[in-house]
Design brief:
The protein has about 575 residues and is mostly loops. Helices cover about 10% and strands about 10% of the residues. The chain has seven helices and 19 strands.
Length: about 575
């Protein structure tokens, strides 16, 4: 074989020009590397000189102690061969898989990515109008194959990383039937083809996420909301990661935005409504409008108070001290606790303020007394029910200021007398929340309200304290909000009569006689009357009281009672917004 490098380059150039139109010559793969042409040892000895090994010779061939001229049978790639003993200007053509520079170097007549391909199958592939070859048939290039993939001279099935748009993909190795979605700028048919889940309509191109593309993508926690830097918070029921993702500032135990910041735990946060048990049902922070007012549908639960305290690690006083004057009266701040735990009897901790005693009537453990906020035994308390059961119940024995603070935390205020009156009378149109009197009676148990000890907590423990007068732990008779749906008003507000009397925010320690779990239902009969004629709504008609608001402890024995200033086992409340 002659070593004629100039002729070799000319041959390659001519072959390339002729075959460009068929797309079979050249580097389809930009990473493909052409073979190095020439003798292996350019600085070695020329043919005829003495040698010890092939490394001494320019051609790489040493026979009988003499350097030899390159041939097509010497087992070395030399001269202008493109592979060992084949290709080049004078060598035999190379088999499939061997290195090449031009189609003429190959037995199959096709050089692709500097590698010889095989001949195409009969009646398929190649140039012209022939159909593409099926998997397994001979090929010279990917263009010969229906799959677009030619490896080792044969068509191959589509693969997830074959560098070809095939197999139902919308772009190269992505989208469509491919397991991986496409990056921005790649082709698509639907949003599911894209990492961003956005496929631009006219161009059918994957587009970068935005906060108005109606798709959950990027750092969003739900569709176009939540996540770091999001301009929009997520509504109730949408997915969240932390509280800041939610419009309510409350991301629940189930990673769904709650309707209020205090309704993030299951028990007492998502367990309101007519069904018993600890399964999720209505959001206890649900609200509805009555005329111009937006009001909690349900009484505040013990679980809502627990979530509020947990969120602030009990430091409610420190939190309240940062509130603006139009939200909170700083004169009330000193009355708030600043820890959950602490010395029993010390009003600086929440367990004391919500547990037995602490200046609250009937909240200690004993006959027909007790509170619904679970506290540890060391606070002088032994409850008949576990915390998860008590947390579902309406919150009683709560100081006025602490309940008012919870309502501010939820973005509202302690319900006012006017708001409660509007809900009770359906905006002044009915005598009772459910309408007319009907079969309702204030002197006995009924289907409309939790009263006269009519509610019984399911599955009380076998060792519950009980005597001939009933359960000693009065929490047995306090219901989770919403268990008497027959008594709801037209907008779905529950327990407007019965279960618990309610604190109202018109003045400190003011409350409303709207019925409770014991025998207060008779007082609720005249709530629908105007304030100046209403003896039991929120005004005190007794001689010498000047129709002033009912406040606790004024009602106790008709005069202030310094020993019971902070609450009562039959008073709770709800929030307005």
């Amino acid at each position: 074989m002659l070593s004629a490098t100039p002729l070799k380059l000319t041959s390659f150039a001519l072959a390339a020009l002729v075959l460009v139109g068929a797309c079979t010559t050249g580097a389809d793969d930009p990473a493909a590397t052409p073979p190095v042409i020439g003798d292996p040892n350019p600085d070695g000895k020329p043919p005829g000189e003495s040698c010890a090994t092939g490394d001494d010779c320019r051609t790489g061939v040493c026979t009988g102690g003499t350097c030899q001229t390159a041939t097509n049978t010497d087992g070395v790639r030399n001269g202008d061969e493109t592979d060992v003993d084949c290709g080049g200007s004078g060598g035999p053509p190379c088999d499939a898989g061997k290195s090449c520079l031009a189609d003429g170097d190959c037995a199959g007549g096709v050089c692709v990515d500097f590698t010889c391909g095989g001949a195409t199958g009969a009646g398929c592939g190649g140039a012209g109008a022939l159909p593409r070859c099926a998997d397994g048939e001979p090929c010279a290039a990917g263009a010969d194959c229906a799959s677009g993939v030619c490896v080792g001279g044969a068509c191959r099935p589509p693969g997830p990383s074959d560098g070809v748009k095939n197999g139902g993909e919308t772009d190269v190795d992505c989208g469509g039937a491919h397991p991986d979605p496409c990056a921005d700028g790649k082709g698509c048919l639907t949003g599911d083809d894209c990492e961003s889940r956005v496929c631009a309509g006219a161009t059918k191109t994957c587009s970068a996420p935005t906060y108005d593309d109606k798709v959950k993508n990027g750092a969003e926690t739900d569709v176009d909301c939540g996540g770091p830097g999001a301009p929009k918070k997520c509504a109730a029921g949408l997915t969240c990661v932390d509280h800041g993702d939610c419009a309510s500032d409350g991301c629940g135990y189930d990673k769904k935005c709650a309707m209020g910041a205090s309704c993030t735990q299951l028990e007492g946060g998502q367990t309101c409504g007519p069904n018993e048990g600890l399964a999720k049902q209505a959001d206890c922070c649900s609200r509805a409008k009555v005329g111009a007012y937006e009001i909690d549908k349900y009484l505040v639960t013990a679980g809502r108070m627990r979530a509020f305290l947990t969120r602030h690690d009990g430091k409610v006083r420190d939190w309240a001290a940062t509130l603006p004057a139009n939200t909170w009266n700083q004169a009330w701040t000193a009355s708030l606790p600043n820890s959950v735990d602490g010395a029993p009897g010390d009003g600086n901790n929440a367990n004391t303020q919500l547990g037995p005693y602490y200046g609250k009537r009937s909240c200690e453990t004993g006959y027909h007394t007790g509170h619904t906020f679970w506290t540890p035994p060391e606070y002088g308390d032994t409850k008949d029910f576990p915390r998860n059961v008590l947390d579902t119940k309406a919150l009683n024995c709560v100081p006025w200021w602490l309940l008012a603070a919870l309502c501010v935390f939820d973005g509202g205020h302690l319900l006012t007398e006017a708001e409660l009156r509007a809900a009770y009378t359906n905006g002044g149109t009915t005598a009772y929340p459910w309408g007319a009197r009907g079969t309702y009676t204030t002197g006995a148990q009924n289907a409309y309200a939790v009263g006269y000890y009519s509610y019984a907590t399911p599955n009380p423990p076998p060792n519950a304290a009980f005597d001939v007068n009933g359960y000693k732990d009065v929490a047995f008779y306090v219901a989770p909000p919403g268990r008497r749906p027959a008594g709801n008003n037209a907008t779905g507000h529950a327990d407007l009569v019965g279960n618990l009397l309610e604190w109202v925010g018109d003045s400190e320690r003011q409350f409303v006689w709207n019925g409770s779990f014991e025998r207060h239902s008779r007082e609720a009969d005249t709530i629908q009357a105007p304030i100046d004629e209403d003896p039991y709504m929120a005004r005190d008609p007794r001689p010498g009281r000047d129709n002033r608001p009912w406040t606790w402890p004024d009602v106790v024995a008709g005069a202030p009672d310094s020993g019971n200033v902070n609450g009562y086992y039959a008073i709770g409340g709800r929030c307005g917004y």
